[in-house]
Amino acid sequence: MGAIRVYKGLYARVDDAKCVGCGRCAKECPASVITLEARHEE
Ligand code: SF4
């Protein structure tokens, strides 16, 4: 979906506008370092 961008292989950032909260990244992360949190509407 293109919501995650990895910068120089050092860290990743999620684009809130593109993320649909499906949780696939958390399920498939081999290091289990991704967690989902409820989105807080502003
Ligand atoms: S929750 Fe889904 S849409 Fe959001 S970053 Fe993870 S895989 Fe992509």
In short:
The protein has one helix at 24-28; strands spanning 4-7, 11-14.
Description:
This protein has 42 residues and is of the alpha+beta class. The protein has one domain. The protein is built from one helix and two strands; from the N terminus they run ββα. It has one helix spanning 24-28; strands spanning 4-7, 11-14. A two-stranded antiparallel sheet has the order 1-2. A hairpin with a 3-residue loop joins strand 1 (4-7) and strand 2. The protein starts with a strand and ends in a 14-residue tail after the last helix. Residues 1, 3-4, 14, 19-25 line the site of iron/sulfur cluster.
Main sheet properties = 2 strands, antiparallel
Structural domains: how many = 1
Uncertain segments are: none
- How much helical structure, as a percent, in the residues? 10-25%
Give the names of the bound compounds: iron/sulfur cluster
Total DSSP E strands: 2
Structural class: alpha+beta
Average residue pLDDT = 90
Report the span from N to C terminus.
24 Å
Question: Percent of residues in beta strands?
Answer: 15-25%
Helix and strand element order: EEH
Roughly how many Å is the radius of gyration?
11 Å
Q: What is the overall shape?
A: globular
Query: What's the total helix number?
Result: 1
User: Going across the major beta sheet, what is the strand order?
Assistant: 1-2
How does the SSE layout of this entry go?
Blueprint: E1 4-7, E2 11-14, H1 24-28
Bound molecules: iron/sulfur cluster.
